[in-house]
């Protein structure tokens, strides 16, 4: 005789399973280094930074391990589970050691564009400087047959070109604002400090910049064409009602009345609209004006937007983002004035409090 199912117990089991999967996805989402948005131009940009044309597509963490390759989106969910020519990436290479790459997948071309490399053949280089990691991106990818598609390599892999962020390098990366210069659709430029390590989470030593020529999503939109009338963002609502950005900055507070009327579930992500970001006359710091609740966040997301993104998007809507000409001038001046030693110490000390622990966990986590 079959025992009757307890619907309450079944619901609790489902909820517990969903929470486990959410936490697992969040763990993987936090294994990527996220750039801040360039709301101000670093003084040493021309001497201490690299610039990369940023491919448009799906940012993902790629791990080859146990004879298979798995790519995970920024949400931590699986994008592809496939065979690749990366070490330990297919069933014929199971004796080799794993790899971890930071990539952008372009669905139209079915290519993984490699932005960074954190582990190759079991050798971790999270704590190596950018110049060494990017050297390995090009040298190691040239050693394996990842440029063609076959039964042991379902998708092509290609390194993203890297340039010193001087005047000449910026010109090559920008390419006149045309995607045809790099054989892929661009989504702005990525700047990364030459001496920084690969840090989990937000890093001020990695910056993203866009304009209307280099990105269809210069101003945030769902389709890259129609700009919404109001700026929107996704933020984390704490149990006490405080609304937080990715870096933990308080953007606003939900009153108990708003929470009750809208039946807002706290301790999770929610969508908001913003009128603008301005300078407070009282404190002299940037604050959000007209923060309004817009509904629950997407279940596909596990991390909120960063404060720098909110500021950049507000600037973009008002035509106040740094222009490519302003960046070029700073590159030219910085190259003549600043030396590499000036900010190396900053780069080495950035986020040291948890990098080693998180890195150890990432090497042991199953894909």
Instruction: Spell the H/E element sequence.
Output: HEHEEEEEEEHEEHEEEEEHEEEEHHHH
Please state the average pLDDT score.
88
CATH class of the largest domain: Alpha Beta
Number of structural domains: 2
Task: Indicate the radius of gyration in whole angstroms.
Answer: 22 Å
CATH homologous superfamily assignment of the largest domain: DNA ligase/mRNA capping enzyme
What is the count of helical runs? 9
Overall structural class, as computed from helix and strand content, comes to: alpha+beta
Overall outline: globular
- Under CATH, the topology of the largest domain can be stated as D-amino Acid Aminotransferase, Chain A, domain 1
Strand content: 25-35%
**Distance between the ends:** 40 Å
Helical residues, percent: 25-40%
* Low-confidence runs of at least 5 consecutive residues: 339-367
Give me the CATH architecture of the largest domain, please.
2-Layer Sandwich
**How is the main sheet built?**
7 strands, mixed
Number of strands: 19
Report what the structure shows.
- The chain has 367 residues and is of the alpha+beta class.
- It folds into two domains: 33-211 and 323-351, D-amino Acid Aminotransferase, Chain A, domain 1 (2-Layer Sandwich); 231-317, no CATH class.
- The protein is built from nine helices and 19 strands.
- A hairpin with a 4-residue loop joins strand 4 (68-73) and strand 5.
- Functions as an U snRNP-specific nuclear import adapter. Involved in the trimethylguanosine (m3G)-cap-dependent nuclear import of U snRNPs. Binds specifically to the terminal m3G-cap U snRNAs.
- One of its GO terms (molecular function) is RNA binding.
- It comes from Lotharella globosa.
- It is found in: Cytoplasm; Nucleus.
